[in-house]
């Protein structure tokens, strides 16, 4: 008796793990200012749950790269993808809405809105994406040690406290991607350590992919891998 026919084409497809898109991807980014080229073709990808450090000398283009990856600026050439969607080709407004839902930004200077309360600042990304973020925002503020300060204005907070608000805001919509540009650069050592740990712990809990620019070796040590930027290209560290 002949054996029943196998279905080789079905088995591997059913068994293969689902291929999730990377949290963040860039292909051949090129950018410059005036006649000065800064990035000469940068490609990278960050998976969900991964922490990647970006290092490089001052002026090498780290902040320029993060601005492009965060959709705050449009590359002169190349592609930016968030969670499987190409976003560099979107209009400014569509991109801003996608950013609010998918990307958390933490910069050296926190850019809080000074006329809004602590809680309202954390709620801004949720409002843009029409989510009811109240519960999540309050929980995040508790996690960063600011329970009870929800209705304070940013102006009365210390530098470290303001950066904690920025961390809570970056995580508010459970973004796929966290972009951090020297997030602890303006803080003293003790505060820097606490805030960096909070940011990375919260990102890990949500499975976000993190790209982190830092001069702080101890902070870079938290990353699973490092990308070194030199003369507008990523080189082997
Ligand atoms: N808006 C701008 N207009 C003109 N030139 C700019 C602008 N932004 C950045 N540059 C130039 O691009 C180059 C890269 O700057 P960038 O801020 O990306 O460097 P960086 O690696 O982040 O440096 P640092 O470590 O000092 O923060 C620099 O030469 C800078 O002067
Ligand atoms: Mg910079």
Q: Helical residue percent?
A: 25-40%
pLDDT averaged residue by residue = 89
CATH superfamily: P-loop containing nucleotide triphosphate hydrolases
Q: Which descriptor suits the 3D outline?
A: globular
Domain ABC transporter: 24-237
EC number: 3.6.3.-
Protein name: Lipoprotein-releasing system ATP-binding protein
GO cellular component, one term: plasma membrane
Task: Give a verbal description of the structure.
The protein is of the alpha/beta class. It has one domain: P-loop containing nucleotide triphosphate hydrolases (Rossmann fold). Helices cover 34% and strands 24% of the residues. It has eight helices and ten strands. The protein has helices at residues 10-15, 62-69, 92-102, 118-128, 134-143, 159-171, 189-206, 217-220, and strands at 24-33, 36-46, 51-55, 77-82, 85-86, 103-107, 177-181, 209-213, 225-230, 233-235. Strands 6-7-8-3-9-10 form a six-stranded mixed β-sheet, sandwiched between helices. α4 (118-128) packs parallel to α6 and α5 (134-143) packs across α6 (159-171). Bound molecules: adenosine-5'-triphosphate and magnesium ion. Magnesium ion binds at residues 62-63, 181. Magnesium ion is lined by residues 62-63, 181.
Strand and helix map with partners:
Blueprint: H1 10-15, E1 24-33, E2 36-46, E3 51-55, H2 62-69, E4 77-82, E5 85-86, H3 92-102, E6 103-107, H4 118-128, H5 134-143, H6 159-171, E7 177-181, H7 189-206, E8 209-213, H8 217-220, E9 225-230, E10 233-235
Parallel strand pairs: 3-8, 3-9, 6-7, 7-8
Antiparallel strand pairs: 1-2, 1-4, 4-5, 9-10
Helix pairs in contact: 4-6, 5-6, 6-7
Bound molecules: adenosine-5'-triphosphate and magnesium ion (MG).
């Amino acid at each position: 008796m002949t054996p029943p026919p196998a279905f080789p084409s079905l088995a591997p497809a059913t068994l293969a793990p689902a291929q999730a898109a990377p949290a963040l991807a860039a292909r051949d980014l090129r950018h410059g200012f005036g006649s000065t080229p800064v990035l000469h073709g940068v490609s990278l990808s960050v998976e969900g749950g991964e922490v990647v450090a970006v290092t490089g000398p001052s002026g090498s283009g780290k902040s320029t790269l993060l601005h492009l990856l965060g959709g705050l600026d449009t590359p002169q050439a190349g592609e930016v993808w968030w969670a499987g969607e190409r976003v560099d080709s979107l209009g400014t407004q569509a991109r801003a809405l996608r950013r609010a839902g998918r990307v958390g930004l933490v910069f050296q200077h926190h850019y809080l809105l000074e006329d809004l309360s602590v809680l309202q600042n954390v709620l801004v990304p949720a409002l843009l994406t029409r989510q009811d973020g109240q519960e999540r925002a309050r929980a995040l503020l508790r996690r960063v040690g600011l329970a009870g300060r929800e209705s304070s204005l940013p102006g009365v907070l210390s530098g470290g406290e303001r950066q904690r608000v920025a961390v809570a805001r970056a995580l508010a919509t459970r973004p796929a991607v966290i972009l951090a540009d020297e997030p602890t650069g303006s803080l003293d050592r003790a505060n820097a350590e606490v805030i960096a740990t909070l940011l990375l712990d919260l990102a890990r809990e949500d499975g976000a992919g993190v790209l982190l620019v830092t001069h702080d070796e101890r902070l870079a040590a938290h990353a699973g891998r490092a990308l070194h930027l030199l003369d507008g290209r990523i080189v082997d560290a």
